[in-house]
Design brief:
26% of the residues lie in helices and 25% in strands. It has three helices and five strands; from the N terminus they run E-E-H-H-H-E-E-E.
């Protein structure tokens, strides 16, 4: 009989120890503590997608630059370019995940970009989905 073994990150073995902070920062104590690496990787990816390039002082290439794309003309080619850019940069900054599916859906009438992103954590084979809606205004 075959066993499906799952690797567990050592940070996840201590359930009362925080791994990082969650998004958004709107709780009474400002920060929401995250206790699993799966959740923290998800928030790190969301932070990456919401960051613009040159926003981090010592890491100018960090970020997907979604907000700056809201003011460009949206075409099928620009969607594909954005999708390729996001995929390349996520593979570069997050080598611990495998991208399963990445879709960029644009609504030029509302200046709206939606990123639907599914991925698998390589260490534990856990899957997760992110749907991020960025709009002007």
């Amino acid at each position: 009989m075959a066993y499906n073994l799952r690797n567990i990150n050592t940070l996840d073995l201590k359930p009362s120890t925080g791994v990082g902070v969650g998004l958004p920062f709107n709780t009474p104590s400002v920060f929401t503590t995250v206790y699993t690496t799966k959740e923290q990787i998800k928030y790190n990816i969301i932070n990456f997608l919401l960051s613009d390039r040159r926003e981090r002082i010592f890491n100018p290439t960090f970020g997907a630059g979604l907000r700056s794309r809201l003011f460009e003309q949206i075409t099928d080619q620009s969607n594909q370019t954005l999708q390729d850019s996001i995929q390349t940069s996520i593979q570069s900054y997050f080598p611990n995940i495998r991208i399963e599916e990445l879709d960029v859906i644009s609504d030029p009438d509302r200046s709206n970009i939606t990123v639907e992103f599914s991925y698998t954590l390589l260490a534990s084979n856990e899957q997760d989905i992110i749907t991020l809606n960025v709009q002007n205004g």
